[in-house]
Amino acid sequence: MKRLILLLCVLLNGCFTTRLTFQRGAPARLAEGWDGKLHHGAIYGLLELSDPVPIDEACPSGVAYAEQETTFVDGVVQSLAHNLYSPQSVWIYCVDAAPQASRGATP
Questions:
Q1: pLDDT tens digit string along 17-65?
Q2: Coil vs helix vs strand at 66
C-alpha cells in the first residue's frame, strides 16, 4: 500500500515554472542567495508562510527576471503534505551592469 501511495505521488506530481521578465534582453546575473531559495506556502499555495520575495533588495541595479518553480522535489513534498504545504523554489536574476561599464572603458 505504501508503494502505491508513493507511486501515485510521483505520477500525479506536476512541475511548472513561472518566469517574470522585467527587462527583456538585459545582461543578467544570478542574485546572491537566490539560487533556488525556497518560498513557503500553504493550502495549494494560497497562503504565504514566508515573507514576499524582496526583489528590489536583492537587485539594487534592477531586476532582469525572476523565476518561481515547483521542482520535482517540491512537488513530491507538496503531494505528501496533501497540498497543505506548498514549497516553491525561487531564482532572481539582476541586471548585470558590469558589461555596460566595460563597453565605455578605454583599453
A1: 888 888 888 888 888 888 788 888 898 878 889 888 888 888 888 888 8
A2: strand
Alpha-carbon distance 5 to 93, whole Å? 37
Mean pLDDT confidence for 80-96: 88
CB atoms within 10 A of CB 13: 17
For residue 73, give Cα distances in angstroms to 3, 35, 79: 17, 15, 10
For residue 99, which of 23, 22, 27 has the smallest C-alpha distance?
Answer: 27
Residues 6+ apart with CB under 8 A from 90: 34, 36, 37, 38, 39, 53, 66, 67, 68, 69
By C-alpha distance, which of 67, 65, 68 is closest to 95?
Answer: 65
Grid coordinates standing for 67? 523565476
What are the sequence ranges of the domains in the chain? Answer: 17-96
Residue whose C-alpha cell is 505528501: 80
